[in-house]
Amino acid sequence: MTTAEFIREYRERDIRQLALQATRFPDVDMPYALDQIQGWQIARRKLPKWAACDGVIFPPHLSMEQCSSEPTAQYKLNLAMEWTSRVESSELRVQSSEEVIDNSSEQHATLNSQLSTHNCHASRMTDLTGGFGVDFSFTSCAFNAATYVERNEQLCHIVEHNLPLLGLDNATVVCADAVEYLSTVEPQTMLFLDPARRDEHGAKTVMLADCTPDVVQLLPKLLEKSRFTMLKLSPMLDWHKAVDDLQGTVREVHIVSVGGECKELLLVLSTVVESELKVYCADLSTASGSSSLFVYTPGSSAPVANSKLKTQNSKFVHEPNASIMKAGCFDELAAAYGVSPVSRNSHLFLSDEPIEDFPGRSFVVERVTTMNKGELRKALAGIEKANIATRNFPLTVAELRKRLKIKDGGDVYIFATTTAEGEHLLLISRKYR
Predict the structure, then answer these.
(1) Cβ–Cβ < 8 Å for 349, 318
(2) 240/210 Cα distance (integer angstroms)
(3) 287 confidence band (pLDDT: 50, 70, 90)
(4) Per the omega criterion (within 30 degrees of 0), is the bond before 213 cis?
(5) Which of 145, 262, 372, 412 has the lowest tally of Cβ within 10 angstroms?
(6) Which pTM value belongs to this model?
(7) Partners of residue 283 on adjacent β-strands
């Protein structure tokens, strides 16, 4: 059995068990085969279009875990298409969430076939930090010509092998340092950078200027060489500080979440297009979910008054999604949806009526109780299991669960929070949607 045959036949098996059976397959390059099987198993979850292409070579495990997922890469393609249209026409146009978030309802045989479903206004783009090439394989579909730049020679060979299998025939692979290549590249419609977020000791960086390459230092050259630049950054970075560091060139901030987890921060820079800064909080769909988008202009809304909770009133409680939590746009959210914050630091919102399109989760509040023992006993009667979350509350989830003597799970949700008057309350709820 050849190595390729082994990978095809055993790619759904547990790699730990396969490693123990290595002596049964003397003709198989077992370390390589196990890497490919593990990579395929991750791709089946994160990159189903890649996993469906026979012959694709996957990089080592760490690169697979760190690479973009298909929903976030698709989001970047849509963003690249939108901005291509803007810079080519030199005018802004209002976009709906359906234009920004593509749920990928149309399944294409290859990534390149998306070229036929979009108008390609741009001539060329360059990804200066190509990596495994997931983002490149999607964003390049928006352009007539695209260049992948990566200083790791092994990754370049892998990507050069994979691109034709993915149906991408408009791409050029260049093994080079990003900074050196930027100084020689011809003007591009879009430049894309995903700077490394670890220092020379392997520690994570939290400042834009500490990433490699240093985008702040490269800023003049990026603006000179592109009509717009897309930066992919860690969601751990302070986007307010990043916008300030980039000296008024950021036109849009996109905070992207998938499956309730904030995955990445995208900044779009341009001097060609002048516009007021907008922030896009995108929560992308999973296989069983739906997408939402909340767009706002920072500082556009005045603070909203805290809610006046009444213990016996049935209300709806709303929990913002991860992108909105990262953005911190709670006043803008309250103003847009007519909801009231429990308190300034609770990050929970109440309404008398259901909010059908609230960007997050909504619950029906069945009971509200203080921490008084008698009230608790009555309010929790018949509840043996519940999902507990604490927001601006003096106890941790584990401490509260121990005090309430309630197991984890079930369809009851308990939000422990503190009102503006300093009263500690539990909102006992069930999912509305």
Answers:
(1) yes
(2) 16
(3) low
(4) yes
(5) 372
(6) 0.86
(7) 257, 292
